[in-house]
């Protein structure tokens, strides 16, 4: 029997005391959390307030007032996710308490923000049914009507609101905005002036009037009004930013900087003016000043997430990956799920050419924050690095949809459209990017290139003249103008432009290559090589010039000189992949396949993703009848680019000729045909696969096409003959076999052709 421990006697007062500590009622717990949450809210500690308010609704899910407090807290925080959470809490609030007018109106505001004016108006009407003179309800209803372009009805609602509350300046601004949309600028001006008679010192009306003067082209008056607003409210940050934005819009860089510096001096302990300065310096390309501004912002407020993220972005944009990586690791060390940390981690991996890892991270970021436009931008960039154009286009299109003012996304989208040959779309996106940032040289070049490819030489020339003027020390302007001149068939003018490009930048290989091409087209190959040698005197250690010289010697069929030039290029730059490629081609052409293979292997040792090197090795192994090795290279290529037609065709050929899976061969041959529908060698491969699979009619069509376009290829005639025999056309088959054997008595398949011919 176990020993029983006697139970101590506890006094009633102690029991009551313990029960009071440990078993407080839900109502008292709720009241405590609510009180604490409101205290945090009043102090601006919104994250802490959220926790307390959530504790309240856990205890009482039907507490409409606390759901409303949660909504207000999320609105204060203001992030995209917070707005979504605020929307959910406001919906819950009005479900529980339809009489909460403020919740109805705020929900309507969010519907307007989401471009759903009809739903916003429903909320306004709910309020106006019980309170017809509620000015906020009238304003919301008026704005919703204006957003749907029902200007007269919207204006009527706003005028009612003004009659009820003539001192509400915001209503006048909304009314003037509607009148501008209705193209009644006189009425808009009168509305704003009327507001000023009621409150001559209204900062928001003065800002609105300044904006109105900009809209109507009265820029001097706009500047005066913005400055007048600053005199009235010298501490108002928004007015400084509006004035700085005005100066920036019209290219008054010194005035922009002076205005922002004045704001920074006014608020010496505030990091935000320095962030604005950093953004401005970034915009005009003064990266050193931008860096100093972002660093100052982080010094003033080490806890500022905005300043931290701006600095990391600057490091990445400037190629300072190590600095960005150190700060990103610090973020993820505190919270591995931090959205900004994961985003920057993805950008770092992109910078290190780890596109697969970047893709995975970015897909996670956009899953958690689907409205983060910049994440979609870099997702598009990652897809571009993977040559997955359709996915890149989709991601960039989403970025532009989420943020139409993102110049970088529009530029990348324009680049894709240009690569795909969608020239009008490329021009549209490039011009939109330039409007957002007139200093966007990349977008200007894309626009000029698109016009050039369209044959619109006048517009192309105009764009490149602007580029040449904007970048007087860069070669890109005169080089592109040289391309325009070549399109105009004016080689003398083109030559002069290319020479100017080389004067600006003695290492401009593209310009030198164009000069060489002009000389060769004129039948002056010796002068082309002499011009390259002359440029080598100005830039004697330029491996690209030696590579160009090697290519010119290849054109002259001088393999020895070409080999010397390519070797010199590699001596100067052992990582120069195209020089290895060209040297390998020299050896391949001259029958030195072992040396050729060695050069192509050297390329792959430095970069396993160089498709051309793998393709050449596949061809070399194919020629040596090392089909397993050739197949491995072709398969590796198709992992890198599943639609690379030459590898798909050659792999199909190996499979069909050397006992491979015919279904797999058919798939590869069809892929090759889709990519190059006019390639007769691919038609022959696909036709032969169909023959092997007994799809004779399909085979006949393709092999007939191949024979007509490749009349001197004995193997093609042999294939056509075999298909005709199987199709019952003995005479046609006999003719095809005879032609094949006449062209080459010993072609691959000649024995089978003779045997079949004898049987006929």
Descriptive key words:
760 residues, mainly alpha, 44 helices, 79% helix
Describe the structure.
Helix 22 packs parallel to helix 24 (407-420) and helix 26 (441-454) runs parallel beside helix 28. This protein is mainly alpha-helical and 760 residues long. It contains 44 helices and no strands.
Residue runs with pLDDT of under 50 for 5 or more positions:
1-23
Strand content: under 5%
Alpha plus pi helix count: 44
Helical fraction equals over 70%
State the distance separating the first and last CA atoms. 108 Å
Shape: elongated
Largest β sheet strand count, sense and barrel closure: none
Oligomer: single chain
* Overall pLDDT: 89
* Main structural class: mainly alpha
DSSP strand tally: 0
What is Rg? 36 Å
In short:
With 760 residues, the chain is an all-alpha fold. Helix content is 79%, strand content 0%.
Q: Strands, helices and their partners?
A:
Blueprint lengths: L11 H11 L3 H18 L2 H14 L4 H14 L2 H17 L4 H13 L3 H14 L4 H13 L3 H14 L4 H13 L3 H14 L4 H13 L3 H14 L4 H13 L3 H14 L5 H12 L3 H14 L4 H13 L3 H14 L4 H13 L3 H14 L4 H13 L3 H14 L4 H14 L2 H14 L4 H14 L2 H14 L5 H12 L3 H14 L4 H13 L3 H14 L4 H13 L3 H14 L4 H13 L3 H14 L4 H13 L3 H14 L4 H13 L4 H14 L4 H13 L3 H14 L4 H13 L3 H14 L6 H10 L1
Helix pairs in contact: 2-3, 3-4, 4-5, 5-6, 6-7, 6-8, 7-8, 8-9, 9-10, 10-11, 11-12, 12-13, 13-14, 14-15, 15-16, 16-17, 16-18, 17-18, 18-19, 18-20, 19-20, 20-21, 21-22, 22-23, 22-24, 23-24, 24-25, 24-26, 25-26, 26-27, 26-28, 27-28, 28-29, 29-30, 30-31, 30-32, 31-32, 32-33, 32-34, 33-34, ...
């Amino acid at each position: 029997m176990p020993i029983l421990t006697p139970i101590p006697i506890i006094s009633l007062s102690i029991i009551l005391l313990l029960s009071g500590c440990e078993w407080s009622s839900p109502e008292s717990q709720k009241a405590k959390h609510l009180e604490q949450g409101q205290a945090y809210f009043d102090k601006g500690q919104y994250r802490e307030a959220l926790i307390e308010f959530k504790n309240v609704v856990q205890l009482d899910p039907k507490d409409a007032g606390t759901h409303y407090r949660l909504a207000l807290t999320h609105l204060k925080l203001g992030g995209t996710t917070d707005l979504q959470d605020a929307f959910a809490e406001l919906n819950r609030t009005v479900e529980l308490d339809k009489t909460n007018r403020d919740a109805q109106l705020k929900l309507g505001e969010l519907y307007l923000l989401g471009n759903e004016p009809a739903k916003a108006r429903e909320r306004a009407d709910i309020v106006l049914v019980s309170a017809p003179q509620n000015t906020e309800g009238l304003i919301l209803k008026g704005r919703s009507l204006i957003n749907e372009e029902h200007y007269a009805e919207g204006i009527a609602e706003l005028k009612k609101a003004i009659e009820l509350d003539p001192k509400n300046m915001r209503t006048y601004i909304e009314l003037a905005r509607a009148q501008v949309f209705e193209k009644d600028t006189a009425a808009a001006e009168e509305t704003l002036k009327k507001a000023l008679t009621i409150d001559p010192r209204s900062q928001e009306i003065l800002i609105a009037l300044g904006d109105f003067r900009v809209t109507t082209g009265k820029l001097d008056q706009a500047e005066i009004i913005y400055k007048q607003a600053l005199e009235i409210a010298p501490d108002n940050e928004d007015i400084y930013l509006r004035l700085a934005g005005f100066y920036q819009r019209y290219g008054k860089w010194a005035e922009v900087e002076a205005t922002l510096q004045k704001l920074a001096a006014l608020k010496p302990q505030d990091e935000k003016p320095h962030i604005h300065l950093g953004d401005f310096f970034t915009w005009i390309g003064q990266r050193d000043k931008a860096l100093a501004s972002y660093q100052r912002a982080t010094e003033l407020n080490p806890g500022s997430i905005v300043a931290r993220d701006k600095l990391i972005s600057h490091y990445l944009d400037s190629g300072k990956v190590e600095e960005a990586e150190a700060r990103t690791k610090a973020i993820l060390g505190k919270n591995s799920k931090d959205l900004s940390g994961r985003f920057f981690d993805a950008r770092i991996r992109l910078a290190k050419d780890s596109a697969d890892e970047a893709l995975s991270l970015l897909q996670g970021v956009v899953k958690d924050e689907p409205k983060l436009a910049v994440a979609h931008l870099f997702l598009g960039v990652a897809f571009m690095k993977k040559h997955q154009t359709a996915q890149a286009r989709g991601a960039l299109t989403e970025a532009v949809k989420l943020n139409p003012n993102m110049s970088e996304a529009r530029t990348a989208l324009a680049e894709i459209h240009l690569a795909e040959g969608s020239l009008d779309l490329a021009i549209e996106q490039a011009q939109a990017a330039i409007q957002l940032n007139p200093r966007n040289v990349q977008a200007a070049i894309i626009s000029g290139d698109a016009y050039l490819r369209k044959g619109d030489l006048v517009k192309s020339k105009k764009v490149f003249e602007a580029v040449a003027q904007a970048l007087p020390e860069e070669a890109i302007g005169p080089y592109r103008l040289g391309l325009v001149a070549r399109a105009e068939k004016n080689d003398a003018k083109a030559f002069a432009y290319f020479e100017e490009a080389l004067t600006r930048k003695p290492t401009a290989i593209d310009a030198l290559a164009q000069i060489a091409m002009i000389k060769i087209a004129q039948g002056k190959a010796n002068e082309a090589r002499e011009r390259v040698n002359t440029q080598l005197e100005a830039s004697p250690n330029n491996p690209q010039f030696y590579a160009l010289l090697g290519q010119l010697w290849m054109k002259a069929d001088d393999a020895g000189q070409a080999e010397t030039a390519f070797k010199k290029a590699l001596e100067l730059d052992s990582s120069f992949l195209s020089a290895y490629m060209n040297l390998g081609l020299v050896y391949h052409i001259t029958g030195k396949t072992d040396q050729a293979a060695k050069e192509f292997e050297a390329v792959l040792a430095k970069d396993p993703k160089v498709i051309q090197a793998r393709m050449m090795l596949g061809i070399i192994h194919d020629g040596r009848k090392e089909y397993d090795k050739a197949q491995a290279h072709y398969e590796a290529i198709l992992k890198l680019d599943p639609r690379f037609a030459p590898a798909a065709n050659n792999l199909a050929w190996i499979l069909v000729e050397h006992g491979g899976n015919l279904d797999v061969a058919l798939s590869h041959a069809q892929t090759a045909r889709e990519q190059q529908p006019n390639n007769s060698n691919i038609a022959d491969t696909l036709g032969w696969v169909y023959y092997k699979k007994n799809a004779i009619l399909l085979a006949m069509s393709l092999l007939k096409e191949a024979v007509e376009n490749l009349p001197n290829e004995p193997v093609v005639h042999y294939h056509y003959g075999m298909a005709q025999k199987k199709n019952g056309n003995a005479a046609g088959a006999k003719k095809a076999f005879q032609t094949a054997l006449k062209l080459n008595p010993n072609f691959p398949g000649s024995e089978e052709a003779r045997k079949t011919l004898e049987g006929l």
